[in-house]
Amino acid sequence: MGVHSVLQFLIIAGCIASFSDASKPNIVFILADDLGWNDVSFHGSDQILTPNIDSLAYSGVAFGRYYSHAICTPSRSALLTGKYPYKTGMQGNPLGMSEDRGIPTNVRLLPQYFKDVGYSTHLVGKWHAGSSRREYLPTSRGFDSYIGHRGGYIDYYEYTIKEDWEDGQVSGLALFRNLTAAWDVEGYITDVYTDEAIKVIDDHDSSTPLFLMVTHNAPHAGSDTVALQAPSEVVRQMRYIESPDRRIFAAMIKKLDDSVGDIVKALQDKRILENTIIVFAADNGGMTTGLYANYASNYPLRGIKMSPYEGGVRVVGLLWSANLNNTSHYWDGYMHVTDWLPTLLSAAGVEPPTDVDGVDQWESINSNSASQRKEMFEIDDYTGYASITYGDYKLITGKPDENYSGYLGGDLRGVIDSPPSYIDAIADSKVYGVLHSIGRTFDTNFLTLRNKTIINCDVSTTSICYPSNNTVCLFNIIEDPCETTDLSATYPELVASMQQILDVEMTKMIPRILPTVIDPMSAPSLHNFTWDTWID
Ligand SMILES: *[C@@H]1O[C@H](CO)[C@@H](O)[C@H](O)[C@H]1NC(C)=O
Ligand SMILES: *[C@@H]1O[C@H](CO)[C@@H](O)[C@H](O)[C@H]1NC(C)=O
Ligand SMILES: *[C@@H]1O[C@H](CO)[C@@H](O)[C@H](O)[C@H]1NC(C)=O
Ligand SMILES: *[C@@H]1O[C@H](CO)[C@@H](O)[C@H](O)[C@H]1NC(C)=O
Ligand SMILES: *[C@@H]1O[C@H](CO)[C@@H](O)[C@H](O)[C@H]1NC(C)=O
Ligand SMILES: *[C@@H]1O[C@H](CO)[C@@H](O)[C@H](O)[C@H]1NC(C)=O
Ligand SMILES: *[C@@H]1O[C@H](CO)[C@@H](O)[C@H](O)[C@H]1NC(C)=O
């Protein structure tokens, strides 16, 4: 069709560099931080309602098998590069504020590809891909403008990050506009990012296409001590939720869902919504317990953030566009975080690069046909585990942390009396209203679509498989999505051939720098109490 073949012609004609064209789709990529599988209502639960996010899923494409990596820095590196994190040395534990490490500067990032074909590129929110040197920062890596936190999370009101060093705690402001500390900002960070994203949209010159990433802090814990933060009047709306911690978490999610509604409304007010592709996705599974626990739930999936089990890597994802051939569907093909780079470039009519691990899924998503992906790897030499998904099967080897690998979060699902009406919440949502105003509301049988996303498992099993030095675990994740039954003894030949593919893949690994080194020159007290760059 039009844009794609015209662009292909122009690529062949070699005049792509001077070509800028408002008919190319705008792209708005919204990323949530530590959001669990069971924390959005389009996955079946009425406990925490996300009517704006759900309305995009019901009128776009809800992904049933979208996979990311289990930890923030690796998953964000994969999203930005289209490469597995172990191919760039970015696997393993997330970056600390005092670490001199970042995505190698010889690797091209997603915004650079879009900038090269005439897009205006903006990032609002979390970076977490390197902040010790100016050359690692978003404005050096393809973004025209940036406001956000450079590290893994931020206090929702104070915008600080604390780290525990050998001789005590250090703390500094972690919010920056381009290259300078953002001392002027006030408010709840989710609202701050929403307002900044709307400003980017309002100020956008519509004669060029827009590439906007909004990478929320929500619903990540604000720190390891003051774990969860939300406006008290929103928390009070969640009294029907039994767990007091989960109530605060639900309020954080509501602010995130409202943000999605406000961004969609801003796109429509600017009259560019109908030429915009919107992605909403989670960076990894929810962190039910342990370090930076946020009371998220991936239940009934097994495992949480930091584990290679499904709860750590099979995450929330959807794509919306007014111009899909096949809307309102549940797509259950494998989609991997590295696939976004080639897929979104393809959607924009740009030939994707060949030196990435991601595959172009645009036609498959658009026409609701089979996924282009057969295998996925999760390799982490730092934590010490590796897994390969091949067809219906997943093999897990090494030593995943057992604390993060069980069936967690089932006890957080309780409600007192009954939650508010889901149907009313959808009908009252901003996104539903916007879609209605442009004649693009979804089918009334969206509850049928919703039912397709529900995972039902019996997880009362008493002997669940953990790999050890000499044993592995093999699961059929299509028939047994909750990884209850180890099949390694049943299919030894399959284990051997999957292990062989995994071993070959592991030879391609660039080792991660070990261990994490704190550079004392990063101390906020040396930089006006901010976490600024310190090596230039
Ligand atoms: C989508 O529809 C257009 C016509 O509207 C057609 O040219 C194109 O081939 C279709 N794409 C797919 C993937 O079906
Ligand atoms: C950030 O940099 C961009 C590009 O130079 C500029 O347009 C924008 O105004 C800058 N923003 C701030 C807050 O300085
Ligand atoms: C939409 O998806 C269905 C499968 O669910 C398929 O049969 C149909 O051909 C697709 N339509 C288009 C236009 O690709
Ligand atoms: C798992 O949790 C237990 C109990 O909280 C703790 O003692 C142990 O150190 C944890 N294991 C790891 C690997 O963190
Ligand atoms: C969805 O599933 C529930 C539980 O199995 C069932 O009661 C309901 O009728 C289903 N709804 C639709 C619209 O299919
Ligand atoms: C597994 O191997 C590691 C490293 O070689 C060793 O430290 C550990 O004791 C072994 N564990 C078991 C249960 O054999
Ligand atoms: C240093 O920090 C203070 C806030 O504590 C701020 O008002 C001031 O502008 C900062 N100075 C510089 C040079 O950035």
From TrEMBL:
Is Iron given among the entry's keywords? no
Swiss-Prot/TrEMBL keywords: Calcium, Glycoprotein, Hydrolase, Metal-binding, Signal
| Gene3D superfamilies on file | 3.30.1120.10, Alkaline Phosphatase, subunit A
Cofactor section:
Ca(2+)
Q: Which CDD domains match?
A: 4-S (cd16029)
Q: Where is the Sulfatase N-terminal domain?
A: 25-350
Source organism superkingdom? Eukaryota
Signal peptide span:
1-22
User: What's a Pfam family this protein contains?
Assistant: Sulfatase
Q: Name one GO molecular function term.
A: sulfuric ester hydrolase activity
State the family it belongs to.
Belongs to the sulfatase family.
Which protein is depicted?
A: Arylsulfatase J-like
In its UniProt entry, the species of origin is given as Spodoptera litura (Asian cotton leafworm)
